[in-house]
């Protein structure tokens, strides 16, 4: 069940010539709606703007986008106090051919979906993960951007489905740890929290950014750096972030297991106090 | 002007939930229709099958696909003796989420477009190219496959539009020459013809394959290898291949110019004798 809207009107389809369909030419945001309000809206807007700049897409006006989102939440048949909204901005409709002229009007869609939160046990006991075999290409011009080019995540996520794992950790072609298929990953060593650099590939999540902002001026400030398989093996604690679930401890990756540790619990408590209610244990 | 068909019926739109739109989850073939027949049909079918295998997509039945193509050509308002057909196979419609179960039915669309051949002067005198600044990510799980994840080509092609160049040559993140935005590239040194390896990124074109097949048992057999900026600079001749235009000499890349050389002319003559009529000078 979901409802999609374009300029306030309900829609169920897009033109075949839409460049989002032809070339994956576009980007999206997946937004947690909590108490009827879009959580981390400012972060979503900033990432969207940066993505439009990188893809040379016409950037939707922030005010108009918010009006469209609010309208979609009101008009939707989905319970709109606690749900998930998805904004897709694609390169619009053009003639056949990769090239897109600078002034091509972008095409914006807003979808509203029921939110399906993880069970409380996931927050208390952690979630199981696997190492995905699908490698992420490196040196991407699109690194960090949540584009509509997501086949790598489709393949990696399909590995998770088959392994019945909550999440899969993905590595780049040079065996660097990058992120989860739908989350960002953090490794804890003693009191140090590290997260993979996303300068070569991966998606820079808004919850990752929020967590780094919250921890910035504390002794637990997050270090962004290159990390590999051995860093994962040696980590004392591992956790994930994502716009919908907030923060979740990782209890397992393939054969390696971790307890839910004190740093992860502290981070969750801090995030609960900073607007991410799911993290309240 | 174009006509799209799904299972024999004309269509103008796809469901918003189509995974091709949501994630670029799919692939495509662009086929030259000459004398009403799909040129290099066997090569297109093989690449499609290999792409479906790599993307874990349900593979369309070859016989049914040909019937659908023939039906689309007949039903289309486009002049169907000499035109371009596009087959899109996407991951179909599923609920939100990257994962796609193995048995998800794929969704096939066939589009028919007027063909716009390059001017005769392009074949005689060559075409102008630029070096694209957009780098291709390397180590891709999708290397060689013509997927719907084409934002890199969109950005590189937009550079060509702005420079008013016929084509742009793209390099990977490690500065290796890979291909054109819509073509494959060949460098000639003396009598040796080399073309970039496509094991890390790029699209393996059907005309590239046909040319390599045609030259396989001749002294001019094509060598597939890693090539860089300096190989391009030092090349005595440069030419491009693409399913629609066949073979085209390159007369310029940024400031570097080349004459249309004897090896390129021999290759074009050989290709003209092997079904690629456009190469007849």
Q: How would you sum up this structure, described in words?
A:
The structure is a homodimer of 281-residue chains. The first copy, chain A, is 28% helix and 30% strand. Chain A is globular and about 55 Å long. The model of chain A has no long low-confidence stretch (mean pLDDT 97). Chain A has two domains: 3-114, Aminotransferase class 4, branched-chain amino acid transferase, N-terminal domain (D-amino Acid Aminotransferase, Chain A, domain 1, 2-Layer Sandwich); 120-279, D-amino Acid Aminotransferase, Chain A, domain 2. Chain A has 281 residues and is an alpha+beta fold. In chain A, 51% of the residues are buried. Chain A has eight helices and 16 strands. Chains A and B meet through strand 3, helix 1, strand 6, strand 7 and helix 5 of A and strand 3, helix 1, strand 6, strand 7 and helix 5 of B. Strand 3 (13-15) of chain A pairs antiparallel with strand 3 of chain B.
């Amino acid at each position: 069940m979901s409802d999609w809207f374009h300029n306030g009107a309900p829609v169920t389809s897009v033109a075949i010539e839409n460049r989002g369909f032809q070339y994956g030419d576009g980007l999206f945001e997946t937004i947690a709606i909590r108490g009827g309000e879009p959580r981390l809206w400012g972060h979503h807007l900033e990432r969207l703007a940066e993505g439009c700049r990188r893809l040379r897409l016409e950037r939707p006006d922030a005010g108009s986008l918010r009006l469209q989102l609010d309208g979609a939440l009101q008009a939707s048949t989905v319970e709109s106090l606690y749900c998930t909204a998805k904004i897709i901005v694609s390169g619009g409709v053009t003639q056949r051919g990769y090239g897109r002229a600078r002034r091509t009007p972008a095409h914006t869609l807003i979808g509203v979906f029921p939110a399906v939160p993880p069970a409380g046990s996931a927050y208390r006991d952690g979630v199981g993960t696997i190492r995905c075999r699908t490698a992420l290409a490196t040196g991407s011009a699109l690194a960090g951007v949540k584009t509509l080019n997501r086949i790598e995540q489709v393949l990696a996520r399909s590995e998770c489905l088959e392994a019945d794992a909550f999440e899969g950790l993905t590595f780049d072609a040079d065996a660097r740890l990058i992120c989860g298929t739908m989350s960002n990953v953090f490794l804890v060593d003693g009191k140090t929290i590290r997260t993979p650099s996303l300068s070569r590939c991966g998606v820079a999540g808004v919850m990752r950014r929020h967590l780094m902002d919250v921890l910035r001026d504390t002794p637990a400030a997050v270090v962004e750096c290159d990390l590999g398989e051995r860093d994962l093996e040696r980590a004392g604690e591992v956790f994930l972030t994502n716009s919908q679930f907030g923060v979740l401890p990782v209890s397992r990756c393939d054969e390696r297991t971790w307890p839910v540790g004190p740093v992860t619990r502290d981070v969750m408590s801090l995030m609960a106090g900073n607007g991410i209610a799911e993290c309240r244990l």
